[in-house]
Structure formats: structure tokens, C-alpha cells
Request: fold
Amino acid sequence: MSVFTVSDIRVSYGKKQVLNGVTLPVLNCGEMLGLLGPNAAGKSTLMRALSGEQAYQGQVVLHQALKSTYKHKDWHNRVAYMPQTPPQESSLMPYELMWSAARALSLDYSDQALNCLIKDIFERLGLAEFATTCLHSLSGGKRQLVGLALAIIRDPELLLLDEPTSALDLHWRMVVLDYVRERLNKTGGAAIAALHDLDLAARYCDKLVLLNGGEIVASGTPFEVLTRDNIAHVYQVDVSVMDSQEGYPLIHIHRPIAQT
Amino acid sequence: MQASAQFDTHYRSIYVKRLSIIIGLCIALVLSLMLDLTAGPAQLGLAEIIQGIIDPQSLSLRHQIILWDVRLPDALIALAVGAALGLAGIETQTILNNPLASPFTLGVSALATLGASLAIVVAPVIPFLPNNAVLPAMALLFALLGGGLILAFTKFSGGARESVVLFGIALVFLANALTAALQYVASAEAVQAIVFWTIGNLTKVGWNELFIVSFVFVCVLPFSLRHVWLMTLIRGGEAQAKSLGLNVSRLRALVIFRVSILAAFAVCFVGAIGFVGLVGPHIARMLLGEDHRLLVPGSILCGALILSLASFLSKALLPGVIIPVGILTSVIGVPIFLFLIAKQRKVS
Reply:
């Protein structure tokens, strides 16, 4: 059953067209879609349009119902967006931030249930020992994890993750994406993640979309999208693509291609 | 389970500690109020004052008048104005995400000064308004006008916080220039009166003014308390709050609206008392952290406490002389403020 379809999304800032008719592959229960593309390809704009922060033209359908038929609050309870910017540095503690988010959004948790939920999320994301450390004393990576925790707290059906692993080291990148995949399997939800790391995208995503200049260059399975030609065309990098023998492609980067 | 998993119990102990700091602030406030009530040229002891509050007839007529017409209104207006500025300060700082912001950054007090100067220099006769009410009325009107301008600009500019701060600063410069122009053409007595008003003074108010300021404060407070979770969430950053589906621009307009009213009423009777709305929230944040459930009451208490202590010192420092309280809040406030900034830089 299709969970989420996105077709012909157009967004412009003034006269500048940022997204030019973007259609994503149909997302089914438990699937993760990777959004790839160089800087300024339109990944974040697409994320903001889907989350409701950015006005757009086109069709966004969740469970056979158009986005416009959902109430603002209902949409946000179903679709959680983790922005690229992590929580800012302040003397606020991650634990306080989670509580204030749940209560400010009037989420329907009892105090005890909310406490358990926060504990569970923090333990899984390795934040338990930092829960009462001020945000300004945390590293960028830890704050990024807090941002992910904040997106997960309402138990959404669709997760929109804008570069969720950009500030994380190798270990935590994999922990985070493992955790997201595990949640999808458990809840039957879906996720869209904008990623810069091609290897991670190939490894964790069921489907990939390659964006460039607000248009889709390729979409499909990792093997279909991550070809030598596509990567050379979009990223101007010379690579060879190998088969990892574990079901996903491995990309070996040689050199940047001189731009003409 | 490892110790790190018990962070909720650890947080609870932090919370209890912060609650006890709030209680401590309340006690300090009562003590400061008592000190303030006993300070003054007439020899009135604490016992007599308490007795006089419970049973006014037990005091001599002279002492009754001193207590009920001078000491009590002066001491209580310090609490009311301090509390109002503390609340306005914390809300402004949070919603503009700027620790240097205060209601005064938004131009509220500069415009109040302009209104007061106009009242002093032009001395207009307003129908149905007694002459001594013209000055506070003009100050209030102009302060509210400033709030209205900021609000209109916030709506117009889409509510980006940097532009709101810049607009506030521009408004301050404009109001100061217009006040200076008025002073240029005014008589020496009028200039003196303007300067005196700008410094800030608690000793010219009575019960009516006290009731008005307290009433506005009590009306605004529930709205602030209703937003404590939202305001805490905003401290995690605007991008996060927006991503959760909150309309931050709308909230900003709402907060600026209520803060302007609060600050306008706070300064219109007592003059532009500096720094309370800036330092009060800072001290509260250092003591209580960012959880606005505690930070909002804490900031109110700190504001009231600072102004109450300043009011006491203004009478107690030089026997027989009342130093305008605005001078003390700045002279004491500036070193405290610099110390806090230095300490905060060290921490982060």
C-alpha cells in the first residue's frame, strides 16, 4: 500500500524557480527514500515544502488524502521534519527541550509515558548521559542527535530528515540510520532523508532520487541511480561503482572532473 | 542500569534545587520590602510599621501619613514596576533570541521619554484629565505608539527577529533625536524636569498609580504563563520550533504586543528606569536555567528584588537625601551586568 506520493512539486522564490516539477517514487510502508544532489539542488526546499513550511504547487498525498485536506496540526503530528540546523546553543538542557516540545504541542502523553519515551529515545541515540548538559556545552554532533530526538517524539508516520548525519562520526551515522530503519520496520512508517554521503545512501535507502538544479536527474534503486555517468554529471566527480556483494553499490571516488 | 540512564531523577533534583532558589528569592523580596519600608528620614521601626499596617489607628497621625501615603506606595510601586520590567525583559529576550534585548531595545522607554518631554515642554491641556496626569498619559500614549510601530513593522517584515531589533534601535535613535530637539527649544526648568524624568523616580506615585501598574501586570501575567512551554521550546532555536509546526512569527507579534503594554505602563509613572528589564532576566537565567516555568516567575522576582533594593539604597545611602532610583539601578546594574557577561563568556 502506498503511504506517500509526491508529484510535480514546483517552488519558486520570487522569480527564481527552485523546484521545477519534482515527482518522487511512491513510498510504501517501511521504506526509506534518499534524496541526493549537490548543494543548492533543492533538497532542503523540497523537505520544507513537504513539511508545510514552504508554499508549493503540486500534489502531496499521504494515505490517499491530499496534504491540503489535513489540518495543520494533524499534518505535523503525522509528518515530522528534522531541519538541517541543529538546536541552537543555549543553557537549555536536551531533557527540558524534549519536555517543552511535547507540552507546547499538547501531545497526548501522560507525564510518566512521556518520561519513558524520552528515556527510550535518549538511550537509543546515546544521549542519556548528556540529557542534563546544557546545549551550549554539547558538540555539534550531539545537538544534531537532539534534533533527531525532537523529530521522533511525536511518533510520526513520515520522517523528513534533512542531512541527519552531517555532523556525526562514522559510528553514530550508522547508529542513527539503523535506528531510523528499525523504527520504520516497527511502525510501518516511511522516511525521506537528504544525504550527502553516497555510501550511506546506497546502504540504507530502498530508493534514491538524484536532484540537480531543481530537477530530477535519476530515480530508482541505488544501483539504478548511483551510476558512474549520473555521478559524473551531477557531482562532477570521477568514480567507479562496484557491487558490495551485500545488495548495494559501493562507490570509489577517484578525482573531481575539471569543469569546463 | 548505568547511572546515565537515571537522568530523569537527576533532573528532578535540579528542579527541586531551582524551586528552592525561587522560594529564596521570595524570602529575599519580603526582607527587601521590609528594609525599604523602614528606610527614610522619619524614625519608624519595623515593629511600628507592621503594627501600622495591621492597625493604622495605633500610629500617630504624622506616622500614619508617612507610612500610608509615602512609604507603602513607594515600596510597593518598586515591586510592581520591577516585576513588570522583569517579565517584559525575559519575554523580549526569549522571543528575540537576544540576551541584550529588553523592552527598552524596542524603543518603548525612549518614546515614553519623548511623550513626557512633550508634556513638560508644551504642557498641553487635555480635557477631563487633571494636570498632574497629563505627563504620565503622554508618556503612556507615546510608549504604546512605539509598541504599535514595532508591532506593525513585525507584521510587515514577516517577523524576522533581526529586523525587529534593528527597527527598535532605529526607533530609539529617532525618539532620542526628537527629545533632544524639544530640549533645544525648551526653557532651563523644562530641560531639568525632562532630565529628572529620564533618570527615573519612584517617590512621586500614589495608590492609584500602583493599582494601575499592578492591574496591567496581573492582566498580562496569565498570557505569559500560558506560553511557558512554547517559550522554553523557542530557546532550542527557531528552526526547530518552526519544523515542529509552530507559527513563530505569530507568537513573536503576540509577545511584543503584551510586552509593549507592560513596559509602557511600567515606565509611564516612574520614568525610564534602566537595566532592570535587562539584568533581572539575566540573573534569573543564571540561577534557574532556561525552563520558563521557573524562569518567568524567577525573572519577575529578580526584577522586583532589584528595584526594591535600589529603592531602599536610594533612601539609605545618603541620610536625608533621596537619590533618584534610576541612577542606582544603572550604577549597581552595570557592574553586575558586566560581571555576568564575563562569567558567561568563561562558561561557554
Summary: Residues 61-95 of chain B form the longest helix (35 residues).
